[in-house]
Design brief:
single chain; 242 residues; alpha/beta; Rossmann fold; 9 helices; binds zinc ion
Length: 242
């Protein structure tokens, strides 16, 4: 007998909204979480990419972007999907500040679509979201990176560790600071306590990668805790900020 596709009951009670135009997405058999027209507007990062941070490069001849040459990074490699520009910029702001946490499902699925083959080759021990400070998480009610990491780890069939990497310092917003100030601001802002599994290779998950100072500070804490290889993935990456 032919199997009929049924919609999950949750979609009928809380209709899914498009992460770009915020309109209700008509339930569809392919389970698309975005309108077709909005999907076309997504600013994907394409090849060639920086071998370190994953940012799009101007020419094939370059291996690394200017930022990664200027400030060498300790993590192994990064996998961002989109440029940090419209309409993803506004969409991520809605995910972060306006309680549109269901958009994390859409973005986690995009991360999976784009990179699961590579992730599965990395022989990862687990996924770790970039943590918020306890106080910030309490006022926001959730951590958008954690929502992303939870769904992505499920799809990758890997454990998601949320209580091991902690943000111990309450820092001022990064956007008001220059590179050096960002790094200083974040030094010692994270603490990692290793667990009995003794994680070696992990994938950090965040929403936005700008200068990379947050991922670097997390990497430092993870290295100190005995993790050898740190990779990161994010919804989007800044195009250039020098
Ligand atoms: Zn839309
Ligand atoms: Zn780079």
């Amino acid at each position: 007998m032919k199997q009929l596709k049924t919609l999950p009951i949750i979609d009928l009670i809380y209709p899914r909204r498009c992460p770009v135009c915020h309109d209700i997405v008509t339930p569809n058999p392919d389970n698309e979480q975005i309108c077709p027209a909005c999907r076309k507007r997504l600013p994907y990062v394409t090849e060639p990419r920086c071998m370190k941070c994953g940012k799009q490069l101007e020419t094939e001849e370059q291996e690394y972007c200017e930022d990664c040459i200027r400030i060498p990074k300790q993590y192994v490699r990064g996998y961002p999907v989109f440029h940090y520009e419209s309409p993803v910029r506004e969409s991520v702001a809605a995910l972060k500040y306006h309680n549109r946490r269901e958009y994390a499902d859409f973005y986690a699925d995009v991360l999976w679509d784009q990179f699961h083959k590579e992730f599965l080759k990395l022989d990862l021990d687990g996924v770790i979201p970039v943590p918020l400070h306890r106080r910030k998480q309490r006022s926001r009610g959730y951590n958008q990176a954690e929502c992303l990491a939870a769904r992505l780890s499920k799809r990758l069939n890997l454990p998601c560790y949320t209580g091991l990497l902690l943000r111990t310092a309450y820092t001022t917003p990064q956007k008001d600071l220059n590179d050096k100030e960002r790094m200083n601001n974040l030094k010692k802002a994270f603490f990692f306590r290793q667990n009995e599994v003794k994680l070696k290779k992990i994938l950090l998950v965040d929403d936005i990668y700008t200068t990379g100072s947050t991922i670097e500070a997390c990497t430092e804490a993870l290295h100190q805790g005995g993790v050898s290889d740190v990779y990161y993935t994010s919804i989007c990456i800044g195009k250039g900020y020098i």
